[in-house]
Design a protein that fits this description.
By secondary structure, this protein is α+β, with helices and mostly antiparallel strands. The chain has one helix at residues 2-21; strands spanning 57-58, 61-63, 68-72, 79-82, 88-90, 96-99. The protein has a domain at 52-99.
Length: 100
Amino acid sequence: MSIIVTILTILFVLLLIKMIFYPDLFVYDTINEVETTTTTVTTTTTETVIDRDGMPPLIRAYDATVRSFFVIDPADGDVVFLQPEDDIYEDGAGKWYKLV
């Protein structure tokens, strides 16, 4: 029992010494307080999904002299050459077509 009392007494004395030599450890100091403002930016992305099945068909033809595919624009009758991977076409009036 005396060992527990001795240990508690030593801890109490250490606490008193710490309070005397380091009083700032037990006082809340507002001088070192820093106010921080955080701004959050939210970015929304939208994806345009094109429904090819709902588009009217437009016939794609091949011109052997220039070795390229082409279509005749339904809006103004111009010949427009295409890339081989093109599968949709927008005419001069802004209407979309599915290439067949």
